[in-house]
Each structure stands twice: as structure tokens, then as C-alpha cells.
Amino acid sequence: MKKTFIKSAVAIHLFLLLTAGIASQAQTTEKPVSEIKTTGFLKNEPVYELNINNASFGRYTIVITDEYGAPMYEETLAGTYLSRRFVLNRLELGSTGVIIEVLNGGIKEATHSIKNNRIYSETAFVTVKK
Question: Tens digits of per-residue pLDDT, 60-99?
């Protein structure tokens, strides 16, 4: 009697743990994840790729501004697993950074920041003759 009670209690606990785990997984909805990465260079300027990894259909707006808020580019996209490439002219930007915002129905989903850090180097060789 006691062994049967313990076995049934263990079985009930295992059943509850498994069903609670499955129910919690079913309720979670993933937000679209956006990422930005450097994919290479075009005419000595960096090429950035923005990926929006959304499994369900959505309408997204990409807004690119400089770090002072001046708009540079805006585009509205619709679909799943969206991707866009951008070339930034570092000479025109100077030392100003760029902010890329991904909006979903007017709500900010993600903000990415790109800093334009350029280092100039000059090398001079001095030869002393005696």
C-alpha cells in the first residue's frame, strides 16, 4: 500500500512537471530579433547588413539617422526574415555616428548604433648620415 502510494505520487509529480514545462513553452512568443553586421567593403567603404529575423509576417520601418537626430534614410518593409544592406560613406559622415532603428507599427523593436572611428597614420623615416 505504501509503495503504491509513493509510486503514484512520483508519477503525478513527473506528469505535472512535464505538462507545466510544455505549457510554458507554448505561451512564450519570440520577439523579432534584429542584428547588424559588417559584410565587407565596397569602394573602400564598409557595407552593413541588417537582418530582421521574424518568423511571422510583419511590417517594419527602418529609420537611419545621424547621432544628432537628422534623418538620412527611411524604408518600410513587409514580410518574414527581412534583410537590407547599407553602404555608409565615411568621408561624408566625418566623425558622426549613425543610429539605425527598427520599428514595428510605431513601436521601437531595436536600436543599433554605428560609430565612425577612423585612425589616420603617417610614417616618416629619418636617416642620419655621418
Answer: 999 999 888 899 999 999 988 999 998 888 888 777 889 9
pTM for this prediction = 0.63
pLDDT digits (tens, 9 = 90+) for 97-123: 899 999 888 888 888 888 876 555 566
What the block records as the C-alpha cell of 113 is 548604433
Return the domain boundaries, the chain. 38-114
- Interatomic CA distance for residues 50 and 102, integer angstroms: 10
The 3 state secondary structure assigned to 51-104 is EEECCCCEEEEEEEEECCCCEEEEEEEEECCEEEEEECCHHHHCCCCEEEEEEE
Is CATH 2.60.40 the right assignment for the domain spanning 38-114?
A: yes
CB 73 within 8 A of CB 99: no
Q: Which of 46, 96, 102, 33 is nearest to 73 (CA)?
A: 102
